[in-house]
């Protein structure tokens, strides 16, 4: 069974933010919520790197572990989804997530957060596939249409990969072999220190 | 002078025993609801089914990403 994953090739990302815009438009994400963001490290300095970040659809998701109302669930293809009808907007998932993926519209009274919103891997929610109710709560369901998340499909430099984890890992490996180095991999410097030049 | 409930020979249902009985009754009534086992949310097979399929569109995406 294919497991859905995102992989951002940091050597190719040019911080154009097209993925962010594509996501917001495709899913009609409300004001104040960004399901995807581009993070730049060492901005303006030599060795600057940008990475497009969203929910990473963890195998053992911490948000799922801490949710007091158990509103999260895994799909058979490894996507972490949640049920907005059950969410109480407590914010535990926001604190648990290492990527800052859960977001809140903050439209409730008395400063309440409102229902949590996060990347759905463009695969909707618990409502019937491609129904108006699903679109209104969770955005589009491109996976049910036989497509992949729009953020990855829109990426002009093909930096953001999405799809079957095995296939995109293979594509990334081929790129690394062609380049002759693997600096795009996260943690490269941590693992190999400065001994291998980029 | 008004009568008190502590008068000897009278069935004394004073305020304290009344609330004691009321509390015991409420506890008994609430017990079945409290022992109901908690059930985790089961999203169901339909909701958690795999939606990904390797369509021509997806194959094209993989192909152009190899450039």
Q: Unreliable segments of chain B (pLDDT under 50, ≥5 consecutive)?
A: none
As an assembly, this protein is: heterodimer
The number of E-state strands of chain B comes to 0
Strand content of chain B: under 5%
Primary descriptors:
heterodimer, A: 198 residues, alpha+beta, Alpha-Beta Plaits, two-stranded antiparallel sheet, 7 helices, B: 67 residues, 2 helices, rod-shaped
Written overview of the protein:
The complex is a heterodimer of chains A (198) and B (67). Chain A contains seven helices and six strands. With 198 residues, chain A is α+β, with helices and mostly antiparallel strands. Chain A has a single domain (4-192), classed as Alpha-Beta Plaits, CATH 3.30.70. Chain A has a two-stranded antiparallel sheet. In chain A, strand 2 (37-41) and strand 3 (49-53) form a beta hairpin. The longest helix of chain A is centred in the last third of the chain and has 15 residues, at 165-179. Chain A is globular. The mean pLDDT of chain A is 90. By secondary structure, chain B is an all-alpha fold. Chain B has two helices and no strands.
Short description:
In chain A, 26% of the residues lie in helices and 13% in strands.
List the helices and strands and how they pair.
The complex is a heterodimer of chains A (198) and B (67).
Chain A: E1 4-8, H1 18-27, E2 37-41, E3 49-53, H2 62-66, E4 72-74, E5 80-82, H3 92-96, H4 132-138, H5 150-154, E6 160-164, H6 165-179, H7 188-192
Antiparallel strand pairs in A: 1-6, 2-3, 4-5
Chain B: H1 15-34, H2 56-65
């Amino acid at each position: 069974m294919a497991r859905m994953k995102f992989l951002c090739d940091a050597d190719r990302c040019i911080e154009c933010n097209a993925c962010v815009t594509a996501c917001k438009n495709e899913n009609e994400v409300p004001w104040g919520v960004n399901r995807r963001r581009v993070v730049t490290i060492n901005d303006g300095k030599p060795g600057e790197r940008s990475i497009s970040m969203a929910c990473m659809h963890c195998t053992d998701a911490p948000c799922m572990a801490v949710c007091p109302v158990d509103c999260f669930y895994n799909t058979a293809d490894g996507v972490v989804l949640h049920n907005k009808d059950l969410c109480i907007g407590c914010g535990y998932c926001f604190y648990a997530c290492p990527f800052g993926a859960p977001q809140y519209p903050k439209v409730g009274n008395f400063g309440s957060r409102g229902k949590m919103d996060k990347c759905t891997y463009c695969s909707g929610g618990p409502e019937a596939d491609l129904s108006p109710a699903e679109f209104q709560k969770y955005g589009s369901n491109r996976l049910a249409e036989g497509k992949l998340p729009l953020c990855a499909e829109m990426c002009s430099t093909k930096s953001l990969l999405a799809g079957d984890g095995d296939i995109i890992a293979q594509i990334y490996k081929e790129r690394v072999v062609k380049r002759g180095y693997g600096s795009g991999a996260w943690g490269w410097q941590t693992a190999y220190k400065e001994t291998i030049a980029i | 002078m008004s009568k008190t409930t502590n008068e000897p020979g009278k069935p004394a249902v004073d305020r304290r025993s009344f609330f004691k009985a009321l509390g015991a009754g409420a506890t008994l009534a609430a017990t079945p609801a409290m022992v109901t086992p908690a059930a985790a949310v089961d999203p169901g097979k339909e909701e958690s089914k795999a939606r990904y399929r390797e369509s021509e569109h997806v194959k094209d995406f993989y192909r152009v990403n190899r450039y």
